[in-house]
Amino acid sequence: MAQSSTEITPDIELEETAIVARDLIRFDTSNYGEGRANGEREAAEYVEARLAGLGLAPQLFEPEPRRTSVVARVPGRDCSKPALVVHGHLDVVPADARNWSVDPFAGEVQGGMLWGRGAVDMKDMDAMMLTALGDIIGSGSQPARDLVVAFFADEEAGGGAGSSWLVDHHPELFDGAAEAISEVGGYSITVGGRRAYLLQTGEKSLLWVRLVAKGTAAHGSRLIRDNAITKLAQAIATLGRAEWPVRLTDTTRELLSEIAGVLGVDPEQVSPDELALGTGSASGFITATLRTTTNPTLLTAGYKHNVIPDRAEALVDIRTLPGEEEAVLAEVRALVGDEVEVEIVHRDVGLEAATSGALVDAVKRTLGVHDPGAPVFPYLLSGGTDNKALSRLGIAGYGFAPLRLPEGLDFPAMFHGVDERVPLDALVFGRQVLRDLLLDY
Q1: Whole-angstrom distance, CA of residue 153 vs CA of residue 29
Q2: Tell me: the pLDDT tens digits for 418-427?
Q3: What is the three-class DSSP state of 267?
Q4: Which residues pair with 308 in a beta bridge?
Q5: How far is the C-alpha of 65 from the C-alpha of 38, rounded, in Å?
Q6: What is the C-alpha separation between 411 and 200, in angstroms, rounded?
Q7: From 125's CA, which of 235, 262, 330, 402 has a CA 20 to 30 Å away?
Q8: What is the mean pLDDT of residues 51-73?
Q9: What is the mean pLDDT of residues 22-33?
Q10: Measuring CA to CA, how many Å separate 172 from each of 71, 166, 168?
Q11: How far is CA 404 from CA 114, 135, 194, 370, 415, in A?
């Protein structure tokens, strides 16, 4: 694998979780979407070998060439309990090395952090899963209940060649499972000078749409009012600047109440946005969960400077609150007008799981051992995870990839961002917390 000239810390100085995460980062599993991807095969084979080394019997699934997922079952002490799915994904979004301080696929260690694409989304959790299982099995113990351990392909493009395909074609893999844990939860935030943790108990709905404008093809010097690019530009500017109203779900209402309690303010007297900003950098996720978002992400039009094209396209990433998909889609069509078509590229459900119960209690109990006194808040994820696919089997999904983070780190900015990185000590913390949760719950 290509590496930067920056010196990489030798293995002897790295804890095992960091080594595994670094190894996984060095597999360039970039997923460009719409069927274009490098594939997860080598990363999946690496995971398969580590699981087999623990005495498990992992299975590989490849619905399309190189789009590889790994699933294994771990027997628990009490098989009468419903199984727990513990899952991660092996693909990552692309990274443009020109914008990074380091090679995004070298897995470099600098400043006490592991850098690289996937460091937080989500090869860190993949590594914590593998090492936590190694701790449990290596000590001669068993998890409290059966575990279905899955490392999915294609999460970054909606899971069509990963979790969704497995749910449709191999639902037996998840027999007996009632709950699942995965990414984008369990990390620490700072509220009012106090550390707290966010447990992801829900996800916004997903609508990926393509806007298509058609017009008259002509020479670039002519007076053409039927210009496809002009129509499209007006539509995407309208959507991109749309101010969607604040709407609170049960999850966000509970979260804001918890934040207000820590800050010592009345949630009825302080706006939801102000309360969200009280979480510091975590507000980068939380403010987006209070409303619909419509973000243009890609433009395609034209092929020569002096040719007016007859077609222009844009992709828009729309995230709605659970249950509001149809209403938002109708509003989007009204906003862009009759001259722009709205095509649905991919859509998926929103989720809200219970914010109390045995699993939530176990999470709070385990975090309380490793970080005494730190409260745990439920929150709604602005993005989506493979829990959406598992929900079709009646499995309630949570986000719990435990990380104790330094106060100054802008964690939300790491997701799909430049210079993605995770603190080494946070990886050790996550391994220990995850191990104890699986032994306890």
Answers
A1: 9
A2: 999 999 999 9
A3: coil
A4: 218
A5: 10
A6: 15
A7: 262
A8: 98
A9: 97
A10: 11, 9, 10
A11: 15, 20, 13, 10, 17
